[in-house]
Structure formats: structure tokens, C-alpha cells
Known about the structure:
By secondary structure, the first copy, chain A, is mostly helical. Chain A is built from eight helices and three strands, in the order H-E-H-H-H-E-E-H-H-H-H. In chain A, strands 1-3-2 form a three-stranded antiparallel β-sheet.
Amino acid sequence: MSGPSAIRLLVLGAVRQHGRAHGYQVRNDLEFWGADDWSNAKPGSIYHALKQMAKQGLLLAHEIAPSTAGGPPRTEYEVTEKGTEEYFSLLKESLVAYDQKMDVLSSAIGFIVDLPREEAVTLLKKRVEGIEAWRAGVTEHYIPEDGPEQLGHIGEIMHLWVHSADAGAEWTRGLIERIEGGAYTFSGEGEPFVGVLAEGQENPYASGEVHPGDRE
Amino acid sequence: MSGPSAIRLLVLGAVRQHGRAHGYQVRNDLEFWGADDWSNAKPGSIYHALKQMAKQGLLLAHEIAPSTAGGPPRTEYEVTEKGTEEYFSLLKESLVAYDQKMDVLSSAIGFIVDLPREEAVTLLKKRVEGIEAWRAGVTEHYIPEDGPEQLGHIGEIMHLWVHSADAGAEWTRGLIERIEGGAYTFSGEGEPFVGVLAEGQENPYASGEVHPGDRE
DNA sequence: TTCTCCGTAATCAAGTTTGACTAATGCCGG
DNA sequence: CCGGCATTAGTCAAACTTGATTACGGAGAA
């Protein structure tokens, strides 16, 4: 398992949308997305990912003089060509991979409009097929042997996974429909939707206030 | 977020079912459950959890002479009283916590029969309530402001989460019904279902062969 | 002016996760 | 009897994650 990682995609995508961004900017964007809630987009992970990807040549680091607004000297990053390749590869993988890892899928949805509309649809259809194949495999693998119910309550675990796989497939089909129906603005279709905070814009979802129902 | 951890519950529960177990046994049980697929129950994590919990007094470690069947000297573990407390506390928390963390829930389902039937039902009902509260909070928090659709395709992420929360609630309701309908054997109801490998029994789901649909 | 608090930006140490690796023993064919 | 090879059991370094902490400058209070 352990397919593509959510932070890498998130960080790469956030930097890319800015053209050039420093860690704090990325951190703010991801908070704006709510990604600190539904993925491991915590400060440490973000800065780590930035450095790591810089070391791997996916990002180019520019050391910048102390910022105009206080704080330690900051580093700005830019996505390299290799980074762009990695970005699209991660994005496509994440859309197709059936991992039950919602953070990865969520991240990919956030960037899905970076693809051409038909490609997005194709990938999502592949995703549905993947889920169906997985479902067939699992039910066959875990049920028969000596007839069902040999598993006792353990079977409920499989039940849970299958149920939520079905829900995932259903949601995906809905999304495909909406996209085919013309929703949203995809790559090459004019003014893209920008999901990042403009310089100086306030973050309405800034941390501190916890959404109701969240546990600790 | 970051509620209860799946490995701790899994390891504690596995050791408890054996009465006394060494790491490899636990590792095999969890593989039998498929837990290495749907949770981070990899060897390193298991041995780490064992040592950690021994240090914390939840497990008692017995150093044993080299095993009868080859390999390095092994350590057997036993759950202490404090460990039992932790176990039930983790189990209950995991059943109720609405984290969208399926590994935690799956682990808890595996041990749910360690609770009395009515308590299991009560906890699951609390779980449903929790999901509903979360849902209400999220939809309210992320939708209005300046009317919906301000989010563009980003709204699809919330859509996804809500959709799968609904699926989770539905599954939980189904389970409650089955349990109330008399399914499975719970604590204090006679011969319990044993979900571990007997000494020397072969593991039909031993690793190597990947289930169809799994990615890498 | 000086002190303190706040927002910005990033680092750090402690803990966790990973999967490849080691090591010891028994089994089987030649 | 001896060399591989599978099995059993566990270790380890490298990578990742986390939350607390540091460091800096500016705004306002005293």
C-alpha cells in the first residue's frame, strides 16, 4: 500500500499556484483548505516536505533577506521542471489509487482542475473501476473458504470496508457526472479558480477555533 | 484530532486473547486479521508498541530462552491490570470517536465482543450521534459565508467527507440493528468467538500474495 | 522611552513508522 | 554429513510526524 503521500502533493501544488512561495504561505493555504484537519499538513511536516523536495530537486530554494514583516529570514521555493512532472504524476496517481486514504484523494480533488477536463473524467472512471475490482477481490477472498460467517464478528470489518468503498464509488460517479455536465473550470478553459489566499488576505478558517464534533 | 491509536489497541487486544504472547505471534494474528493491510501494523510498529507499552507498565515482559523453533531469543508479554484498563478505555473510545480513521474503528470492531452487548450498542449509538453532530457542524461551517459555491471545486472535498460520513453512519446503524437482533456472542454470553490463530495453525492470509486491487 | 505582547516564520527534539536486514535453527536433497 | 533454504523472531537506520519552542520585529501601554 502506501501509495502517494498527501503532503507532497499539497505542498507541491500550493507552491505551484503561487509561482513562488515561502513555507508560511504554504502553511496558510493548507490551513485555508482545512488540510491541517483532514491530512497531516502540520507545520513541521510542511517545512520538512519543502526541504526534502528541495534536496530532491523538485523545488528550488531561494534564500531571502529577513522578511518585511518580522520573523526569521525566510526561504522561498519554486517548482522545478522535475517538480512539475512529479506534481502531475502524483496528482494522477492520487485520483486513481484506491487506498481508502481520504487525505490523498482530498488533496488531489483540490488540484483536479489542473488537468484537462477529459483527462480528469478518464482518471475518475479508472478510479471507479479500481474500486469495483477491489471490492470483487475482497468479497471473494474473505467470504467463501468454508462458507461465510466463519469469520464471526470479524466479518463486520470487511463489511465496513466494502460499505465505505461503495460510498466512495458512488461519490466518484456523482463527481464524474458533475464534471461531464460542465461544472468547474478546468485546465485550458480560461480564468482558473484560485484556491489560495491572496497576499495579505485574511484566512477565515485560521486555526484556534475547532470545528464542532472534532475530537481533541 | 489524533484520537486513540490503532496499533496499541490491536497489540493489547492480541496479547490479551493469547493470555501470553511473543511479538511474532501478535504479528501473525494481525496479519491474519488483515490488519497489516488496513492499519500500520507492520513488524517495526508492533515490536515498538510492545516495548513501549511494557515500559509504561501496560504489559509485563518475560525474557524467554531461545525458542524451540529457531530464531533469536524471544520475549513473551502479558497484559497487566493497568493494561487491561487501558485496553477497555481504548476500545470504548475507538468505538465512539468519529475520526474518519477507519483503522481505529476496524480494530475496535475486532474486539467489540469483549464488551457486554448493551454497552456495545450504547457506544455505537453515541458514535452515530457524533457523526451527525460533526456533519451538521461541517456543512454549516463551510457552506454559508457568502452563499455556497464560493468554494468552487474545493467544495467537492467537503462533499466527499460528508458523503463518507453518511456512509459511516449508515453502516453503524446497520451494525446496531444486527447486534440488537442477537448477532454474535458478546462478553458474558458463553463461548466467545476466538479470532486468533491457535498454536501451530496455518495462516491462510499470510503475506506475500497481495489481494487483488491493492496498489503496490 | 522601555516593556510587553502579538503575529510571522521557522526550527528542534522526541516520538513513530517503515521495510530491509540480521541471526538462529531445523529440514531436505544429494 | 553438508550446503542451501525456508521459517522464526527480532533489530535497526532512515524517514516522517508532531507539538513545543525559538527568534525577530512592530504596535501599543505605562
